[in-house]
Design a protein that fits this description.
alpha/beta, about 50% helix
């Protein structure tokens, strides 16, 4: 069969790569064409466009790049039409993918969606369009199935793919890793300021402002594969700060605490059982718009899944050096850490166990037969 996969960011590239591996097990002669990243490219198939070309964050940034986005959308439709896939697989990235799904359904293509748009967070009215344009939806968060049932839309809960990615990774040799990256023997506080330039610019400087106040800890910036070291270099001026690119899981596996930009990384950090403070700061315009349309009590996946505040969230004006320092001290406290570990264990149980990619691939392939 012929599969066309659309991914728009780093986390989607990871999930897309694992799904491709699973699809190739189910359908060894599969022909795959995709928009994705380096991880998907390593699996095989044909890369059409890299997600780095369209990594725009926030309402203002999207508006400023609207002409470029519309041009990519037009190109994407033509490329799908020329390839004539048996199924179009959309992964997250709702702003782009839901528009492509509408067009694809009108053209008679089979549409599958893996990792639901966050319609439960804002603009729930989009469910009507999803029901019309998406033949099958595979969700990875336990509360999403119940959410869609309210709208009489039956979706498949497949579990969270991060569990597989973390369980299947090669274990790091702590001594060798510390030696290779000159990390010394101090406990590590890892900084994950996001993968997009806008996120990093807004948050990394505040995170790094704590370094002198915590001299007994080694601070390490986890670089995203989508950004070069040269970009980070303008923020890193302290000798007690290390930079390690594209080794986030290795870093999390040996870290004592973490300061994390809101997003998938909050869940990854929790699954590695690392106490964390969740951070978010966007442009004021984007934040003011988001605040008016997002209906959630929390922004981190950890708190959303647990439906309570497990990890502290410092959002926009609360994201200050003073408050961040206070919360970092809190997650370094032994008693609080023990409470966090118990909550993290409960979180993992709620996520449904291993095999999300394999379950999804089986359902996609069986839907074509």
């Amino acid at each position: 069969m012929k599969y066309y996969i659309l991914v728009g960011e780093a986390s989607g590239d990871l999930h897309g790569a694992n799904l491709m591996k699973a699809l190739l097990k189910e359908d060894p002669s599969a022909e795959i064409r995709f928009w994705g990243g380096d991880l998907m490219q390593e699996v095989g198939g044909t890369l059409v466009k890299h997600y780095k070309e369209r990594a725009f964050m926030g309402f203002l940034e999207v508006l400023m790049n609207l002409r470029k986005i519309l041009g990519m959308m037009s190109f994407c439709k033509k490329d799908i039409a020329n390839f004539k896939p048996d199924v179009l697989i959309l992964i997250d990235n709702s702003g782009f993918n839901l528009r492509i799904a509408k067009w694809a359904k009108e053209q008679g293509f089979k549409t599958n969606y893996y990792i639901s748009p966050q319609v439960w967070a804002s603009r729930a009215g989009r469910v009507k369009d999803i029901k019309r344009d998406v033949d099958a939806m595979f969700v990875i968060l336990p509360f999403e199935k119940e959410f869609y049932q309210k709208y009489n839309y039956d979706v498949h809960f497949v579990g969270h793919p991060l569990i597989d990615g973390i369980a299947g990774r090669k274990q790091v040799n702590v001594k060798d890793f510390r030696s290779e990256h000159n990390l010394g023997n101090k406990d590590i506080v890892v900084l994950l300021p996001g993968s997009r330039k806008q996120e990093i610019t807004k948050m990394l400087s505040v995170m790094l402002s704590l370094v002198d106040d915590f001299p007994n800890y080694q601070f390490v910036v986890a670089g995203a594969p989508s950004q070069p070291y040269e970009f980070y270099k303008e923020f890193i001026r302290d000798s007690n700060v290390k930079f390690i690119n594209n080794k986030t899981y290795d870093l999390l596996s040996i870290s004592h605490a973490a300061l994390v930009a809101s997003g998938t990384a909050t869940l990854e950090t929790a699954l590695f059982k690392v106490p964390q403070v969740v951070c978010y700061k966007g442009s004021n315009i984007s934040y003011q718009i988001a605040k008016r349309i997002i209906t959630l009590k929390y922004i981190s996946l950890v708190n959303l899944i647990m439906d309570k505040e497990v990890v502290t969230e410092l959002i926009q004006n609360d994201f200050t050096k003073k408050k961040l320092a206070k919360e970092l001290k809190h997650i370094l406290d032994t008693k609080h850490r023990e409470e966090l570990f118990l909550s993290y264990f409960d979180l993992e149980q709620k996520l449904g166990g291993k095999g999300a990619s394999e379950k999804t691939a089986k359902l996609i392939v069986s839907g074509l037969q």
